């Protein structure tokens, strides 16, 4: 009967170490390694406990956040939001728009009224200046006219006879001129419009369409003040040209 021969003992085995190093007999040489392993195991346990605490914190936060989202969702489904636009809101917006439009219209009307007042003031100023310019010439011409009427030497020429076509063209031209004048001459004051038509007729019927202020006076309707006011409006619109270079104030018809 054969027997298996014994193997040589490994140099790194516990038996070999215990036989070669008497101070590390048995398992004493493992004490340092076991202590290091215990420290690492303790560190591992601490890290595992920290992970457990973090997991519990996350679970608590998720539960609280989920509860808050649920409450917000239920609140949105069950609460009436009073700030949402209603029919009353649209009606209020419509009224506000109408009020703003009315305010803008009133502001525009006030601006137009201010502009009209400014034009009226300018017209009055020009009228006063013109009256001062023609005072002397008007008085002289009036005196001469009175003397001529007494002696019967000279009379104002009568209106020329016009055909139906010429009258129609004359009426269209007068209407075109009046439409360019201020509102008071366009119909707000019928008497002033009639006076303006008479002044324009006098200028168009005058020789070479040039006349003096006194030539256009025709009492009681066309007084000197009314004729002067109409001439000032026509001069401002450049329909009539004023010329006083000869010493006598003459008005030349220019047209539109």
TrEMBL record:
GO (cellular component) term, any one? DASH complex
Q: List where this protein forms a coiled coil.
A: 27-54
Similarity remark: Belongs to the DASH complex DAM1 family.
- Name the major location: nucleus
Give the record's GO biological process terms. Answer: mitotic sister chromatid biorientation
Q: What is this protein called?
A: DASH complex subunit DAM1
Q: Domain of life here?
A: Eukaryota
Keywords, in A-Z order:
Centromere, Chromosome, Chromosome partition, Coiled coil, Cytoplasm, Cytoskeleton, Kinetochore, Microtubule, Nucleus
The subcellular localization recorded is: Chromosome, Centromere, Kinetochore; Cytoplasm, Cytoskeleton, Spindle; Nucleus
